[in-house]
Design goal:
The structure is a single chain. By secondary structure, the protein is mostly helical. Among the domains are: about 130 residues, no CATH class; about 140 residues. Helix content is about 85%, strand content about 0%. The protein is built from eleven helices and two strands; from the N terminus they run ββααααααααααα. It has a two-stranded antiparallel ribbon with strand order 1-2. A hairpin with a 5-residue loop joins strand 1 and strand 2. Helix 1 crosses helix 3 and helix 10 packs antiparallel against helix 11. The protein is elongated, with a radius of gyration of 51 Å. About 20% of the residues have low confidence.
Length: about 450
């Protein structure tokens, strides 16, 4: 696939390569892709690339000859027709080939082809489509031509038989009446004047024809009935062909509408999926941030615990000092005893206050740590629940998109089935009309 071309093409002389525009395969069905590849392989099979080079060389040498350009145009058109026939033989699906032609014409309108392409720069897409639609039923076309010629011959024979009892005088009188203003020579005037008595009676004879309708009615009835029936049958055949073309055009429009709807659904689903994935990434980032904060709080709590342990060790040392002072008090006497006792009591009271403050600080630190851990755990749990909910919504959205796509494919299949039923009905009606034409020919 490449973005430098707008329609499929074959390049290479010894090693052939089929190039396709970027995004073309996504817009075609498998049957249509098969038809495109079959057409390009037909070019390879026929060695059209070498023929195209030779034709280009001849065009350069004989550029001044208009007949050469006309012949070149016809060769290119017939080359595309031949490749269409080979592709039709390989695939056996006329509708897929016709629809691929119509789709690729839209691609070709975006830019000119760079080489021998599927669409054919010199071939009319409409003529190719009409030719493919008629190519599938050559027997019916031949039969239609045969019956038309047969009916025309029968009508001529009946008119010849009907004209025999009417005598020659009415046509001659009409010829004379028509020829009078065209040939006003004096000789002709003299001859008509000389023959006037003989022609006068037959001239009045056709005017008296309405007075004897009983004699002419049985003879003119078959000549008037058979051509009218044949014309009605041909008219109905044309109406059936127009109906088939109209139904194909309508099916094409519906397919384009369904494809645009499919692209819209895919686009909306992709946008919603990207938005939800973005939200999921944000939730994951928040969860990681909260886990990091929880780890930081745990490390801070450990540091506070270490500080409390150090303070506890200091209190133990002070208690040990107080015990030594208490031993000294036992040995002291008099005023010295009173002073040491008072200092001991003050030190003991301070130590108790520090111990209480340390216990209160440890209790508050534990309470704060538990509260923060609970809040962080709760926040992480909420983020996890939201993450799971978003994943479920994403899965539901994907399932909904798949369901919509299945509905679209079902609608397309139903449309194709309805189109096939219509085609079968038209073919059945066409066969009935052919049988009527056969009966008319036998009669």
């Amino acid at each position: 696939e490449t973005h430098r071309i707008h329609s499929p093409m074959v390049v290479g002389v010894f090693k052939h390569v089929i190039l396709l525009p970027v995004g073309l395969l996504s817009g075609l069905s498998p049957e249509q892709v098969e038809a495109v590849l079959a057409h390009e392989l037909a070019h390879v099979r026929r060695n059209d690339y070498l023929v195209n080079l030779f034709l280009s060389l001849v065009e350069i040498l004989l550029f001044f000859n208009p007949m050469m350009w006309w012949i070149s145009k016809k060769i290119k058109a017939e080359r595309e027709h031949a490749c269409d026939d080979l592709a039709l033989e390989m695939t056996g699906d006329t509708l897929s080939l016709v629809r691929s032609l119509a789709l690729l014409e839209e691609w070709r309108l975006n830019g000119a082809s760079l080489a021998m392409a599927f669409m054919g720069n010199d071939g009319s897409v409409l003529s190719r489509v009409q030719r493919l639609l008629q190519h599938n039923d050559k027997r019916q076309v031949a039969a239609k031509a045969f019956w038309s010629l047969s009916i025309f011959s029968v009508c001529l024979a009946l008119l010849a038989f009907q004209s025999s009892p009417r005598q020659v005088s009415p046509p001659e009188s009409r010829k004379e009446a028509v020829a009078a203003p065209v040939q006003p020579e004096p000789k002709w005037a003299a001859e008509t004047a000389a023959n006037a008595p003989a022609v006068a009676e037959p001239v009045h004879a056709p005017l008296a024809l309405p007075e004897i309708p009983a004699q002419l009615a049985p003879e003119t009835a078959p000549a008037d009935t058979i051509p009218a029936e044949a014309r009605e049958i041909e008219k109905e055949m044309r109406q059936l062909e127009a109906k088939v073309r109209a139904s194909e055009i309508e099916l094409r429009k519906k397919e384009q509408a369904l494809r645009s709807k499919e692209l819209l659904i895919r686009k909306e689903s992709q946008q919603a999926t990207q938005a939800k994935q973005k939200v999921l990434m944000e939730l994951e980032m928040q969860m990681r941030g909260m886990e990091h904060e929880r780890e930081m709080q745990e490390s801070e709590f450990e540091m506070d615990q270490q500080k409390l342990e150090l303070a506890q060790m200091e209190l133990e040392e002070q208690q040990h000092v107080l015990q030594l002072q208490e031993e000294q008090l036992e040995q002291a006497k008099g005023e010295d005893l009173k002073q040491k006792l008072k200092a001991f009591q003050e030190a003991q009271q301070q130590l108790m206050e520090k111990e209480r403050a340390l216990e209160l600080r440890a209790f508050e630190a534990q309470k704060k740590q538990r509260q923060q851990a609970f809040e962080k755990e709760k926040g992480i749990q909420e983020l996890q629940n939201r993450h799971v909910q978003m994943e479920q919504e994403l899965q539901m959205q994907e399932q909904e998109m798949e369901f919509k796509m299945m509905n679209l494919h079902h609608e397309m299949q139903q449309m194709e089935v309805e189109q096939r039923i219509k085609e079968q009905e038209v073919q059945a009606r066409y066969r009935e009309l052919e049988e009527k034409m056969t009966k008319l020919e036998e009669e």
